[in-house]
Design brief:
Length: 277
């Protein structure tokens, strides 16, 4: 089996990609750092049908089994912000695991040109493979102190889009939280559906957290996708933070809005508590 390299992670900054991220200037520090006291946390590998993917996990120290949250990265890899998000979830009682979903194609820790990331890595990753890799992460979690009956997913930016797709894919999923995930976009042969396309197929209650000032994701499009899901009998709640831009939870970027990020985080935990009970 192939073994994809475990990249060294730093903080990767971005430029403007409509529907994916917010234009930023370089920032080298996070607003939040969560320690690993009382946790088991670190790098791991996840077996897949084509090899092993690198990943990061965090969980409370103990036998569990713990409710599990699959954490889907932005387009910048499993860097320190995503790792810290896993530790925050672990402090709240969850086993959180973030697989490097693009490791087969490129090492995102070494890429800084956003256009190249989109062109050479993101656009070349088949959705079917990404969903199967998330299934593999769920299988890994179940074998490593996770509770397969209490499975959730959350993702940020592009990962928010993938959260919608995964919620339509896995019937074992109990809850989903999408942070400013694009619901539209042009299809391709290997990425044939957008979030709005699968809204009627959701298999788990989905909470969407969006910014009212997000230049790349029109609120009207999000509400339309949610209305489609609701009309099909699905459970969807959309919370729009009126003054927030895209990436308002990303505390390593100027887009960070602490009050909205904190409120969204608490809403996510309440969603998980409700549907993973």
């Amino acid at each position: 089996m192939a073994s994809y390299p475990l990249p060294r992670r730093g903080v990767i900054m971005t430029g403007l990609i409509s529907g994916f991220t917010l234009a930023t200037t370089r920032v080298d520090a996070q607003a939040i750092h969560t320690d690993a006291a009382g946790l088991a946390a670190g790098e791991t590998t996840i077996p897949t049908s084509e090899g092993v993917l690198p990943a990061y996990f965090a969980r409370p120290d103990g036998a569990g089994p713990f409710p599990t949250v699959l954490v889907i990265e932005e387009i910048f890899g499993v860097h320190e912000y995503i790792k810290d998000t896993c530790r925050r979830l672990a402090k709240a009682g969850y086993l959180a695991v973030a697989p490097e979903l693009y490791a087969r194609i490129g090492d995102l820790s070494k890429m800084t040109d956003v256009s190249a990331i989109i062109r050479d890595v993101i656009s070349k990753t088949p959705d079917d493979q990404l969903l199967l890799d998330l299934d593999a992460a769920a299988t890994w979690a179940a074998a490593n102190h996770g509770d397969p009956k209490r499975l959730a997913v959350t993702g940020f930016c592009r990962g928010g889009r993938d959260t919608w797709l995964y919620a339509a894919h896995n019937p074992a999923l109990k809850a989903a939280v999408a942070w400013y995930g694009p619901v539209g976009g042009n299809p391709s042969a290997i990425q044939p559906h957008n979030a709005a396309d699968v809204a009627t197929e959701l298999k788990a209650p989905l909470l969407g957290l969006y910014g009212g000032q997000d230049a790349g994701i029109p609120v009207a499009d999000v509400q339309t996708a949610a209305a489609k899901a609701t009309a099909a009998g699905k459970v969807v709640k959309i919370h729009v933070f009126d003054d927030a831009p895209h990436g308002f939870h990303a505390d390593y970027r100027p887009s960070y809005r602490k009050a909205d990020a904190d409120a969204g985080w608490q809403e996510m935990l309440q969603w998980f508590a409700k549907y993973l009970a």
